[in-house]
Each structure stands twice: as C-alpha cells, then as structure tokens.
Amino acid sequence: MMGRRLLVCAGALFLILFTIFPSSRALISSPEANPPYPKAISDLKEAIVKGLGFQSEEVKISGFDVRDALVGHALSYEFDLEIDNKVLPIKLLEDVNRWEYVDLPIFQIEQPNGALDENGLVPMSKKKKSSDVSPVLAPFQLAGPMEIWIQDANNMRLSLPYDVEAGVLKKVMLADGAVVTVKGARSVSLRHPVDFQLPLNQSSNEFASGLISLAEQLRRASTNQATPLLSLRIVGPTSLATASQSPDDKLKLRRLAPGLVELSSVSKDKSSSVSTIGGASTTVLTPREFTTMWPITSLNGSNANLLGFEKLLTSVLGLKSQEKGSFKVLKADVAAQTFMKIGFGVERKLRASDLEGLNFPEWRTKPDKMRMHFEVLAKVDGEKVIPENVMRVDPIPLEDTIAQNVISGNVTMSKLPIIQPPSSPFTL
C-alpha cells in the first residue's frame, strides 16, 4: 500500500515538473525562438504580396524556404532613353549560366546556443558556404579621350606596363590614344547624359553598324574642346593596366592633383594617321576601328549583346532611326549582380462569384480554395533582396479517376439488355 502511494506521488510530481518546464523542442518551435524567415526573406515576401495585389488577411503564403533557394550571378543592364521628351526606361538581365545552393549571410537566422530545428536535430545546411566575394565584370578595355571616376578602390594597382605607385586614385584622365584594361570592376555607369544624332547609321563605311556609327559620333564629339569629355563611374576596380604588354606601348603618368592623374600614350597609335585639310587636323580611321565600340574597345561589331541591343534600339526608335533628329541617353549602367530564385505558394478562399461560369460534374466536389504556385527572381543587394520578376508556375496536372459505374450512370446489370452472340459451329 505504501509503495503504491509513493508511485502516485512520484507521477504527480513528474506531471507538475513537465507542465512548468516544457521540453526543449517546445521552446524551439515557438516563433520567438525560431523565426520562420530571415528578415531579408520576410521583406521579400511582403513586397511580393503587395505587388500581386493580395490582401494579407485573405491569402495564405507558403514556401520561401531558404534551404531551397538557388543563387547565381549574371549581368544587368539599365538604360534611360529620352525620345521626343519622353523617358523610356530599359532593363535587361542576362540568363544565369549556373544556379547553386549557396549559404548567403542574409539567409542566416540567429538562434540561441544549442537550438534545435523542428525535428529536434542540430540544423545542418546542405548549401555551400558563401565566400562573401561580390561578382565582377570580365576585364574590358577603355580608350581615351575620356575621364574615369573611381569608387571603392583603395587598393587598386596601376601597371603601365610596370607597377606604379599612384596612391589612392579618385579620378583618371585618359588622353587621346591611351588604352587601359580594367579588371575587377563591379559596375560601370554613365555620369552625364549624352546626346546622339539620327539617323542611326550616318557612317559611309561599310564596316560600321548602327551602334558603331554612334560610337564614332561620340568619339568625334569628345575630341572637340567645346564638348565635355565622356565621363564614366567605375565601382571597385582592382587594377588599371596598359592594353599592350610591349614596353614601346607603355603609358605615361602625370599627377594633376591629389587623387587625380592623367594617362597618355608615349607612342602614337599606329592604326591611325593624321592629315591636314584646310589647316585643320583630322584623324583617318582604319576599317578595324570601325568594327570596335568606342570607348569600350574590347567590344567589336560581332558581339552578341551589342547586336541584340542594336535591334532593340532600332525597334524602339522605329521610323525615327532613319530620319533626321536626335535622342538622349540619360542613364547607362552595367553591373555584375547576385540573383536568387525561390518558389512559393499562395492559397486563397474562393467566393461564390469565383465559381460562376465553371461547369463541374455533379459527382465532383466543388473546390473551396484556390492554390497557385509562383517563382520569384530577385536581386541580392547587400542586406536586401529586391524582386525582379514573379512568374506563375503550373504544377503537374492531375488526372481525374472515375469509377466505371459513374460513367455508365449507376445502371445495374439487371437493367442492361441481354445480347446473344452469334452461334458458332465449334460450340459444344
């Protein structure tokens, strides 16, 4: 009897302690201890719901699991064109060549020490650890005359062709004939608007395309003293080097002010000759120069992106591309970006008005909820994730399975007509 009393007291004490001190799994499953999404993903979710026009109280959002997020790198192009006093923004994104599972810092959720996941296990990521290195543009060449404003490049190397200590550079002036190779840049943008004259192809040279003709026009304007120099902003370059490794083609550096230098070519460009017409000097360009895109001389007329943008510009201008006139480029920005792709689902209750006009069979249960699946392509910008494109994704269609008695209209075998097959002489 005494042993039974002790057993009952011990059981009651165990229930009291279990009620006061819940298990660790219950602590981890609480929203305060383990938030469902990182802040960047929560902000992305709110931006998408507002963009789709849904009300938060009438829909249920599922998904946005960072363990399923794919990360890739690609180039983004942004242009603002002013045509007939109308501003036309153009945004282009290159296709991501490779998507990977990468554990970005913005995906991390701060958890207390020893925290477990919903299964009571120590969370282990299946993704690669991010090296926190921003994507960069491929090396490209710039030719003068122009000015380059440098941003976020305190440890930039200058090679002309030998390394030169120039200190912290903020501005580099490229003289006419000077060509440099830029490496490690994260973005290149236009600092001031540029005017272009139409028609699109004003060159009589057979090698020049529409954009090459505009580049030739821009180069002639830059050599004019009355026209301001072409000005570019480059973010994060790691080095500026002469385009040629030959000592004969090295560049000469001249300090103009703290953080400001000028680069000029020691030898004149062999591909151009100078002639005098009426007392004025003009530069005669060779066919090779008509196939390169000034000031980015590493691009030629056969570049796929260049040809695609030329077709886009021709379609935007329409008939104006062959007429006399002008248009202005207000903004031009090319940047290497990190993109993220993640899927999510939306569930919304259906109203009676939503079912009007839909013919459902009598045997089928009418749906009361609508489920939609989406995939968002977003740009990772520091601690923010900005949605770029939201696409509707159609899941695998389900086929209805109907019983045979439903197809025959629930008719019993006793009501079916009796059909006598024809007699056969082989029948016993």
From TrEMBL:
Gene Ontology terms: biological process: endoplasmic reticulum unfolded protein response; pollen wall assembly
The keyword Signal is assigned to this record: yes
Record-level GO cellular component terms: endoplasmic reticulum
Signal peptide feature range: 1-26
Keywords assigned by UniProt, alphabetized: Signal
Organism superkingdom: Eukaryota
Protein's UniProt keywords contain Signal: yes
This protein's name: Tunicamycin induced 1
Natural source organism: Eutrema salsugineum (Saltwater cress)
